[in-house]
Design brief:
Elements lengths: L3 E6 L6 H13 L6 E6 L16 H8 L12 E5 L13 E5 L25 E5 L2 H10 L6 E3 L13 H10 L6 E6 L8 H14 L3 E6 L7 H10 L3 H10 E4 L5 H9 L3 E4 L8 H8 L4 E4 L13 E4 L1 E9 L2 E8 L1 H13 L1 H18 L2 H17 L3
Parallel strand pairs: 1-2, 1-3, 3-4, 4-5, 5-6, 7-8, 7-10, 8-9, 10-11, 11-12
Antiparallel strand pairs: 13-14
Amino acid sequence: MISRLLFEGWRFIPHSFALVAQSHCLCLLQRNDIDLRFVDLPFHDDKWRRTRGIFTPAQEDALRALRAPDKAFVPEVTYTLRPERPEFSAPLFGRRFAFATAEYRILTEENRSALPSAAEVPQWVNVMTPSRWAALAFERFGIPPERIHVVPHGIDPEIFRPDAAAREATRRALDLTDAFVYMSVGAMSWNKGLDVLLEAFARVAQASPHARLFLKGADGLYPSREYVQEVVGNLPTRARELVAERLIYDGGTYPVRMMADLLRAADAYVSPYRAEGFNMPVLEAAACGVPVVCTAGGPTDEFTDESFAHRIRSSPAQRRLGANEVGDYLAPDRDHLIELMRRTMHERDDASRRAEAGVAHVAQHFTWQQVTEQLLAAFNRSVSGSG
C-alpha cells in the first residue's frame, strides 16, 4: 500500500480538473495512512484568478494547508492533473499517473507533448482517465492497456442530493415557480452541443410557453456568454425570439453548494453533447434527483442507465482537429432530443420514478469516497507491479 502521494494540479478555481483534484484530496485527508503533498501548477490562462468559497471554509483551510514536498519527501506515486498537455515525463521518484480526458478520443500533437509515439513515454508513466470513451485515445497512441486506468468522477452525497425546500427556495428566488425548467451547465463550447439544444428548445417552447432554459456558463474561465450570444444570434428569427424570451443565463462562479441548489431548481437536465471526457454535471444532476436527458453512445453511458436517463439517439462522426488529426464525436439527433424534452415535461409520474432511481444509482456507485478508493487501488496495483 502506498503511503506517500504527491498531487500536481490546480486549487481554488472552478475548473473540472481542479474540482477533481481537490475532491480526491479531501477524501484522502480523512485517512491517516497517507502522507499527501500538493504542487500547484501554472494556470492554463494568465487571466484566471484563484476564487475562494468554492468549497466550505473548513475544506478550503484543509486544502490550503497541503504542503509542497520537501527534499526528504519521496513520493511513491505522483498524480499530475494538467489539461491539454498531459505530463508524460518520468517522475523523479516512483511512478507518475498522468490524468487526461481526450474528449475526441485522439491525442493531438499538443496533447501528446510533441512525442512521436507512445514508445517515448517512460514505462513508469501511467495514464488515468475518467471514462472508457476517453481511454481509447491512449490505446490508439500505443500506451499498453495495463498502463491505462479508468476511474470515474464522483459527487459529495451531503451536497448533491434531493432537497425539496432548497429547490423551492431557489425557484422562488429565480422567479421560476410556475415554469418547467430545462438546465445545462458547462463552457458552452461546440462540443457541448449548445446549438442543438437551443434549436430543440425553440421547438419545445413554441408549444409550451411556460418552458424555460437555464444555461449556467463559466465566464471566469471561458467566453461562455459570447458563445451563447453567437449561437442565439444564428437561430432563425422566430426561433431566436422564442429562445430570447425564455432563456436565463448565468456565468458566475459559485460554491458547490449553490451549484447543487441551481441543479435542484431544474425539472430536467439536458446535455446533447458531442464530445466529453466524462460530463460531471450529468452525474451531479442525477444525484440531486433531476431527470437527465443526454447523448447516447458517449461517456455518460458508463455512469447512467435507462432507469433514470433518457438517451438521445446519436450517430458517430469525425472532426478535423489538426492538419493530420481527426477525432471522434457524436452527432445527437435533434428531433429525438425534442421528443425527449417534451416527454420529460409531460410525464411527471415517470419523472419522479426516474429521479429516485438516479439518486440511488449515484449514491451506490459514484461518491467521491468510492471513486477515491478506486484511484488508490489503481495506484497500489501499479506500484506492486500487477497493473
